[in-house]
Structure formats: structure tokens, C-alpha cells
Amino acid sequence: MSIKIAIQGIESYFHHLAVQKLFPNNNVTLMPCDSFDKVTANITNLSADFGVIAIENSIAGSILPNYTLIDRENLQILDEVFLNIDMYLMALEGETLHTIDEIHSHPVALQQCKDYLMRVQPHCKIVEGKDTASEAKRIKEGNLKGVAAIAGKQVAEKYGLKILDSHVQSLKEDKTRFVVLGRNTEASPIEANKASLKFILGHEVGNLSNVLQLLNTFNINLTKIQSLPIPEKPWEYAFFVDVLFEDKELFSEVITMLGKTVKELKVLGVYRQNFENTPSHLIENLVHGK
Amino acid sequence: MSIKIAIQGIESYFHHLAVQKLFPNNNVTLMPCDSFDKVTANITNLSADFGVIAIENSIAGSILPNYTLIDRENLQILDEVFLNIDMYLMALEGETLHTIDEIHSHPVALQQCKDYLMRVQPHCKIVEGKDTASEAKRIKEGNLKGVAAIAGKQVAEKYGLKILDSHVQSLKEDKTRFVVLGRNTEASPIEANKASLKFILGHEVGNLSNVLQLLNTFNINLTKIQSLPIPEKPWEYAFFVDVLFEDKELFSEVITMLGKTVKELKVLGVYRQNFENTPSHLIENLVHGK
């Protein structure tokens, strides 16, 4: 049984690596998409079984538009994985740090390497591209002299580029969290201890402390919170939160209670916390009909 | 007395417009910068008196890296303004909707116009650029055929481009919030009723509900909250919140109390809420030494 997984990036090393961590022993067919929108659209229109997208980063924080996408397309978060993002500066054979006057990468990657760029390459023109890997590919294929890309190490290996400098990101421990998305017909895994919720509060913003108090009372711990204004409804707010819990049954009961106190509640996913990056049981569960 | 204001964007229409709304009667010299970093750096190194940067948007939510910049550079939020962002599709004279096969703009602008692009221009290559206005400029100067830019109306007028379509953004009411930044030596304005705070909580994440309860008890209303993981400190969180208050003195007292209950507290700015986009009194206050 081959599983089709949509990822962002023409040949995006990091999304691909996230898939490899989660599904090392499965027969996976990657479906590269050139935007996060297309990843979620391909899940919805049944072209892909699952999608894997970056959702937050230790420096830039949440990738808020991706939360909106999950919500709008009614997808479910089914699993997660965390990758250490190590960035390398790479260019054509024969280049050195001193021959480079232009550096290309994805905007988020450029931001992660900002300190390095300002310190070591302040004279360089910085160009935002679609993807870390495809910028490297463009340098190789176009034989672009004086141009370097910032990307993962395996990108340099794949396109035969020379590594000019390594670990160029500001934080040596730069973790990015990726989530596995599926259609919301999937059951949540048995080993679940984490959930992503969206709720809307009315005009009394003070209500938020009541909601948090309720979660707190039942040992449901907040690990993340983001408010988003609701564009059509001034003074109303949507909140995206991630929570950890120990008792899945108690969690379900609290969620039912929570639904009675907020204006709108949506569970975006109930899954396992996966800091250790152990492989996903998602596919086995599906195959065995669990 | 001429005031130097740093803005992001080579000739960025929207940041420029924000400055015009805030300082219509002042002698302002714009200092265009090619990144948000350079805006804040120019304030810190005294090259600019103030900076104006976008901080949140009704669709994409908070621009989290800009919060991090304000915090890291120890700047103060001194005022705010909200702009309705109306987007136009523009190209060289002689082009029509049917002759376009490539569309350039800033990534956030492209996201705001995503529905239009997928519906009306699904065949077009979408190219992310540095800035809405500079992409339009490039089309004009490079005489780029078959290429359109998405930007504000005045950009089309400035560079003599033809408007192919108007109001191409998804939400007809797409508001972006801009803030005025200054060095943290400035006193907060007398008419202040809004504040931006950053606080860090320790390992007991449940503490957040206590903090919100404290604010709530004293009628300090939360209008925004974002948690950010602290990269070097797993399980500790920084929160960026915006609050509204009525009594400035009471607010100061609550802040003093708050400082005793959290691990770290920083006031990023105390200013007036400015939904009506009335001109800023910031410069008059400075001139008259208030």
C-alpha cells in the first residue's frame, strides 16, 4: 500500500526530511506542491492521503496562515514532528565567501540567518525565493556565478554545490515543528495526549481567563496560544491553542463543557506529542483499521 | 524642525501612507529601508527619530518577527494607525488580464489576494518580491511584458502603470495596523489608553490564567495575545499582549503588581488606541517638551 503525502516545496529538503522521520518504513509517494494552499487542497480533493506542513518555528513563532488553512479546509492534525534546522551557505564550485555578492533563500530561512548575513555578508544583496532547495537548484542549473543559496546540507549534496559555510542560522538550536494533516474523517490515535483547538469568544474578552481557568482545573496545560482578530467581526477574537493532557476521556468531557461556554469551538486535531520524533503509527492504524 | 522617520520598503506606498495619516502637518523626511531590521537599527543608532512598521494584519494576524525586533532593540511603541489595504493588479500600458502570465508582489500581499489569484489567474506564475511598490517599479523600468504587480492604487499612478483589476484582495475590509517606534527614552503620551506588554512565565503554564484574571479584575482588557516559545528555554513561554485600559494610574499600579507575579515583565509601549486614524501628537509633545 503506497501512501501519497503532499508537501510544500518543489524539492524541499526539510518537508521531505519530516516525512522520512515520520514514515521511515512505509511506501510513501511524495507529492511536491508549490504552496501550502495546494498541499491542503490536494488533501481535500482526495489527490493526497495526507499532507505535511511546517506550523511553527522557535524563532519566527507560529506560521499563522497555516492555522487558518487547516481551519478553512476543515482538516485534522494527526501527528507532529520537530526538526533541527541547520543551515548552510552553498554556491558553485570555485566560489569562496569573498566572491559572493548575492544570497538567495526562502524568506523564513533568510530571517533565521539574519545575524550571520549582517555580520559576515553585509555587502550582499539578499533575494527572497520560493524555497530553500529550489534556489540552490537554480544556481546549479543556471550556472549563476557570485550567487549563494542558504539551505540544508543535503541540498548541497543533491545539486553538487560547494558548502561555503555551515550552521549559519542565528540559533544553533532552531527547531521547526511540522504537522501531518488529513481529512477530518480520520479517528484520533489511541496514544493521543495533545490537542489543537480553535475557539471564538464574544465581546467580553475577559472570558479568556475563565476558559484558561477551566482547562487548568482539569490539568490541561496550555503550550501555545495565538489570538487572531476576526476580520468581519470587530472586537471578536478567535484563539488557536495547543494543549497537553494525560487523560483522554477527561479531556473529551472538558471539551464538551468548554463548548458550552464559548461562542464557537472546533477541535483541529487530537494527536500525540512527539518531541522524540518517533515514527508515526498513523499508516499502520489505517491499514489495520484501528 | 524636520523629523526623520524610517520606513520599510524602497518606496513603499503603504508605510508612506501610514506616515502621512499620522503626521499630515509635520515636516517629515522619510528614510526608506529595505528591511524591518534596518528600520529599527536606524532608530537605535540615532539616524532616524522614529520608525513606522506594520505589526499586524486582519488576515495574516500578528507579524511576530516585528514584535521580536521591538523587544530586542529595546524600542517603544509610541502610536498606532490602521490602514485599509486596497490592492490593485497593474501592468504596462497595452496589457490586459489575458496577456499576463506572471504576477509579482510582496508575500503578504500575495497571500491577501490568494483567492483572486486562484480564481482569475490560476495559470500565472506567482513571484514573491521584496515590496509591493518596488515590484511595480521594476515592471516599468524593465519594460517587463506579460508581468503584473499587485500594489496600492497610488503605485500605479506613480509609475504610470495601467490598472487591470481593482480590489483584488480577498477581504474587502483588510486592515493593517502600523505602529510608530521610538527609543525608549520617550515619555508615554498623556492620552494613553493602550499598552503592549511582554511577559515570561515559568514552568507552570497554568499561571497564564492568573495573569489574565489579574488584568480582568482591574478592567484591563486584552485585545491580543501571542505566545512565543523561548528557544533556549524549553517549556518557558514569552507572551506578547495588547491591553486597553481607562485609568492610566491604576494601569501603572497593576503593572507593578504584575511584575511581582511573572518571571519577567517588559512594557513595550503605552500609547493611545487610534482606530480613527487621527494625527499623532507625538511631535508636538516633543517640540513643547511635554
Overview of the structural elements:
Chain A is an alpha/beta fold and 290 residues long. Chain A folds into three domains: 1-83 and 175-186, D-Maltodextrin-Binding Protein, domain 2; 88-166, D-Maltodextrin-Binding Protein, domain 2; 192-271, Alpha-Beta Plaits, CATH 3.30.70.260. The first copy, chain A, has ten helices and 15 strands. Chain A has helices spanning 13-22, 36-44, 64-72, 107-112, 114-120, 132-141, 153-159, 207-217, 248-261, 282-287; strands spanning 3-8, 28-33, 50-57, 61-62, 75-84, 88-91, 102-105, 125-128, 147-151, 162-166, 175-183, 194-201, 221-229, 237-244, 264-271. In chain A, the strands form three sheets. In chain A, strands 1, 2, 3, 4, 5 and 11 form a six-stranded mixed β-sheet that branches. Chain A is globular and about 65 Å long. The mean pLDDT of chain A is 86.
Indicate the multimeric state.
homodimer
Q: What overall geometry of chain A do the principal axes of the alpha carbons give? A: globular
Q: Most extensive chain contact?
A: A-B, 44 and 44 residues
| Secondary structure: number of strands of chain A | 15
Corresponding CATH architecture of the largest domain in chain A: 3-Layer(aba) Sandwich
Helix content of chain A: 25-40%
Main pleated-sheet profile of chain A: 6 strands, mixed
State the CATH class of the largest domain in chain A. Alpha Beta
**In total, how many domains does the architecture of chain A comprise?**
3
CATH superfamily of the largest domain in chain A: Periplasmic binding protein-like II
Which fold name fills CATH's third level, the topology of the largest domain in chain A? D-Maltodextrin-Binding Protein, domain 2
Q: What is the residue-averaged pLDDT of chain A?
A: 86
Briefly note the structural class of the backbone of chain A: alpha/beta
